[in-house]
Amino acid sequence: MANAVEVKDDTWASEIEQHEGLAVVDFWATWCAPCRMIAPIVEQLATEYAGQAKVAKLDVDNNQRTAARFNVRSIPTILFFKDGKLVDQVVGAVPRPALEAKFKEHV
User: Fold this and answer.
1) Is 35 a catalytic residue?
2) Which of 7, 24, 35, 56 is catalytic?
């Protein structure tokens, strides 16, 4: 998780809601196999879009308040925020081109 930052319920407001520009949050859990499948893709995109998008990860088991607030019922779920406002989402383990297209659309 070199370029993706970890966010928690208590850091959500400062890390995501107050972030100017694009913030992409990967909602995941350690036991989730599809989450582990897309983790390297998320990390690659965090590296490639460094300076253009803030990429974060939120463990839904340890941060249930935020997951419930955004109605995350299936993981992985990746939410896209622009200037703190939810603008898009991707649910499930999608191939890299699909995820990258969302990055390009919102950068």
Assistant:
1) yes
2) 35
